[in-house]
Write a structure and sequence with these properties.
Layout lengths: L1 H53 L2 E3 H7 L42 E2 L3 E4 L18 E7 L3 H13 L4 E6 L6 H8 L4 E4 L3 H8 L7 H4 L7 H21 L4 E4 L4 E4 L8 H6 L7 E9 L9 H4 L2 E3 L7 H6 L1 H5 L13 E5 L4 E3 L5 E3 L6 E11 L5 H6 L10 H7 L3 H12 L2 H11 L5 H9 L3 E3 L2 H13 L11
């Protein structure tokens, strides 16, 4: 009898134990499920944010994995301690420089080498977003006609760029040209002067290895050095005036914020992830379809897409068809142009990139946005290269004068051909007339049609009229 009671007691205890374990398991499963749901929700939100950024931004490391290219030009970063000196407008900035907030003054202001003026002329912008307060600036070194420069600034002002730093040379530096340019709102103009030369001479860049390879070389190398030194001056002013982004492009280039619904550089740059310092815009090279182009911004709509924006296999498949008898896939450069956050330590890294004296910046390529390069789109562009430099024709001398292969080819051809023969050469090497080939390249994504700049420029011309002095290229 006692044994049966003991067995029943043990069974009761065992049942209680089993029930307790089961209850504990249920509690643990519920807690685990809640944790998993919370973690899944967090991961999904994180992945959603990453996907949203990935739609527009392609980090450099990802590009290396997805679109490796033999044409990639790496920016080198040389680490040096920043110069310890306070900087004011007109001096080079360092980490100790005073950064002044606010926008440009409305009254005219000038320095020994710069001029700025306000204007009653206003242009509508297409922003209307939460990024309206973002201050974007463009710097450039130019010898183009004032009419072309003004159209170029009007186009970018419509995209939300409100600050322009112009270093003028040649016809752009004539008194009448400067007077027209300084009347444009938000512009700062530097004319050639001893003061400007002195300011360039104070640049830290002279002591840096990254620019040293271009010193003591003529022609295109001289321009490259001037552009880099001018960028340093513009950076100092941008820091002092509290601007947010610095873009450096030429007057034959237009920013194209592809994928941005407002067509606004403010909105585009305002959405850049805060950890990204520099944004690289792939260059799209304009392709003239006739040798009679006079106004490239309005007449050329066909563009050769950069290999960063196309499938590598397709790029390699059509490489020879696109290159033809030319030295490279692109007639000119292939490594894009950049925008950089204006921060202490910012410096130029040549005309195409930015770096920083204090750190190695984080760089990303824009997945859709590009810079449209209207290079050699008119036969006048070819004629303008004739006699621009005085170089010997041997290979070593040509490399010292010209950075780009096609520029060397043109220089030699002008010595061998008359103007009629050169026009034939231009049609063979630059003009795209083969309708079948163009259709194939468009269908495979290597070429694209972009009409918006044409439409915008038409609107600008209807508003302001044809530019006085024409739109011819630099001279």
């Amino acid at each position: 009898m006692g044994a049966r009671k003991e067995i029943a007691k043990r069974r009761t205890v065992f049942r209680c134990f089993v029930v307790s374990v089961a209850a504990l398991c249920v509690v643990l499963l519920v807690m685990h499920g809640a944790r998993e749901r919370a973690l899944t929700s967090f991961v999904r939100e994180h992945e959603k944010e990453n996907r949203e950024w990935a739609k527009r931004w392609v980090p450099q490391d990802d590009l290396d994995d997805q679109y490796p290219s033999v044409h990639r030009h790496r920016a080198t970063h040389v680490g040096h301690a920043p110069r310890k000196a306070g900087a004011t407008v007109g001096q080079f900035a360092s980490d100790d420089s005073l950064i002044l907030g606010g926008t440009r003054a409305s009254s005219t202001r000038s320095t020994a080498f710069g001029n700025r003026a306000s204007s009653d002329v206003t242009l509508p912008t297409q922003t209307g977003t939460e990024h309206d307060t973002l201050k974007v600036m463009i710097s450039t070194t130019t010898a183009d006609s004032p009419g072309k420069i003004l159209d170029w600034m009007r186009y970018h002002r419509l995209l939300g760029v409100e600050h322009f730093f112009l270093f003028v040379e040649g016809k752009a530096a004539r008194k009448g040209s400067v007077e027209r340019l300084v009347a444009f709102p938000g512009v700062t103009v530097w004319e050639p002067s001893a003061e400007l030369d002195e300011l360039r001479g104070k640049s830290r860049a002279w002591k840096e290895d990254w620019l040293g390879n271009f010193f003591e070389k003529p022609c295109n190398n001289e321009l490259f050095v001037r552009q880099s030194l001018n960028m340093e001056i513009a950076i100092a002013h941008a820091l002092a005036e509290g601007l947010d982004w610095h873009v450096h492009i030429d007057v034959d280039e237009l920013l194209w914020p592809g994928g941005e619904k407002h067509l606004s550089m403010k909105s585009f740059l305002g959405e850049v992830h805060p950890t990204i310092d520099n944004v690289v815009f792939a260059n799209y090279e304009a392709c003239p379809e006739t040798d009679a182009v006079r106004d490239p911004f309005r007449e050329v709509t066909l563009f050769k897409r950069n290999f960063e924006h196309v499938v590598k296999r397709t790029y390699m498949q059509f490489y020879k068809a696109v290159t033809g008898a030319n030295p490279n896939y692109f007639l000119t450069y292939a490594n894009g142009k950049s925008a950089a956050r204006v921060r202490p330590g910012l410096r130029s890294n040549g005309a195409h990139r930015f770096s920083n004296y204090d750190k190695t910046p984080t760089e990303a390529w824009a997945a859709e946005a590009a810079v449209l390069h209207y290079t050699y789109t008119t036969f006048d562009d070819i004629k303008a290269r004739k006699g621009r430099c005085e170089c010997e024709k041997d290979e070593e001398s040509l490399k010292k004068c010209f950075i780009l292969d096609f520029d060397r080819v043109l220089y030699v051809k002008w010595d061998e051909m008359n103007e009629d023969e050169m026009r034939t050469f231009y049609n063979e090497r630059v003009v795209w007339r083969d309708q079948g080939l163009k259709k194939r390249l468009l269908a495979n994504g290597l070429f694209t049609r972009i009409y918006a700049p044409q439409i915008i420029m038409d609107g600008i011309r209807r508003t302001f009229g044809e530019p006085a002095g024409g739109i011819s290229s630099s001279g």
